[in-house]
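Hi P.,

Sorry for the delay on this. The queue was packed all week, but I finally got your sequence through. Input first:
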Amino acid sequence: MADKRFFIVGGPFTAEEIARRTGATLAGAGNGALVLRDVAPLDVAGADQLSFLDNRKYIDSFRNTRAGACIVHPDLARAAPPGITLLVTPEPYRGYALAAQAFYPDPPPLPGVASSAVVDATVDLGEGCRIEANAVIGDHAKLGRRCLIGPNAVIGPGVVLGDDVRVGANASISHSLIGNRVRIYPGARLGQDGFGFAPDQKAFVKVPQLGRVIVGDDVEIGANTTIDRGAGPDTVIGPGTMIDNLVQIGHNVRIGRQCVLVSQTGISGSTRLGDFVMIGGQGGLIGHLDIGTGAKIGAQAGVMRDVPAGETVLGSPAFPVREFHRMTAALRRLAKKRDD
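Then the structure:
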């Protein structure tokens, strides 16, 4: 259960209303009038709480739960304890996410500018914004409505933020245009110089980085993630993309819609990702690659060639998943033969 010191619960909601919000169908006891006051895990939920089951690993907890209602996949509904109201959906985790959003909506920022914040007189500050202690907003920056700028965050000159953008503590943004409903978590860095140098016999010659970072709507950028601005073309993050903590995105990279980049992923300059690409933790991509729509790159994969649309690759260097498994199996056979 959520700690009430940090989270404010909304509601209550009836089971019927939650079913409508999640697109689920009432089943089991089917009590649409059941009043639900919170969400909770299967093993601790009570009669006025909603839980969910998405993984067969927890089927025993489901059988013994005392939750008043549970969001569940149709294939697992038969294991429900008697008397429970079921909200049946083929996507129970999605259903839970929507229900939890209803119970715990993001509170709007309390408008105001902290006395210790530094906001240039030329800043265009949208209605309902909150600027917290020691934040700095440079000249001619523009913030949309209801933006929240956390403590010690720095918004550089000319930066544009859309509506409902949230910037975490100690984050910094320069040379960037940010869409609506974007979340930038604490310590993230957007718009700093890309890593560009020309070789020379005496010393490296720095290449001016003259592009920007363009972030689409509904993007999340995790804590301590860094996104370099382009060298001339822009670095682009497509709408709906989810970026975990500690991710590095180099200059000129272009990422499509609804991509997922897990922690410690590194993408070198000028690589392009299509829509719906997924990269596991510590995935590494060299520069100037094309990663096709829907491609999946496994954790710790080292990608050194283009990946076609829809292909899954594993290993370092990365190979198509079937080829990788054949190679692994052959290596095991070789090792076993040597031991024998």
